[in-house]
Amino acid sequence: MKVKKIPMRTCVVTKEKCEKKDLIRVVRSQDGTVEVDLTGKKNGRGAYLKKDATVFAKAKASGILERVLDVKVNDDLYEELNNLLK
Predict the structure, then answer these.
(1) Residue 84: left (phi > 0), alpha (psi -120 to 50), or beta?
(2) Ramachandran angles phi, psi of 22, nearest 5°
């Protein structure tokens, strides 16, 4: 029997390789808007964050999403990420 491959992605904050289902994708679309991608299939430049409030706080403090996505990220996005954990 063939073993199914599990997709692995790297968190931009912790640099940890995790299963795709354990991460949240943040995507920058062609028009420059940044949003949370719950499906993992939206078009645009994506960055993965581990599903953890401390990781979200580190991402906000360090500005890593702004560097990776090359666009200004609003505080509303971080609030939305924290709300997803609840």
Answers:
(1) alpha
(2) -90, 5
Domain count, the chain: 1
Q: pLDDT at position 1, please?
A: 81
- Report d(CA 24, CA 51) in Å as an integer: 6
Q: State phi, psi for 70 to the nearest 5 degrees.
A: 60, 45
Strand spans (E) along 1-86: 8-10, 17-19, 23-28, 34-37, 45-50
Print the domain residue range for 47. Answer: 8-85
Whether residue 65 lies inside any domain: the answer is yes
pTM summary value:
0.91
Q: What are the C-alpha distances in Å from 40 to residues 29, 54, 58? A: 13, 22, 22
Secondary structure (3-state) at 33: coil
Residue 3 within any structural domain of the chain: no
User: Cα-flanking dihedrals φ and ψ of residue 14, to 5°?
Assistant: -90, -15
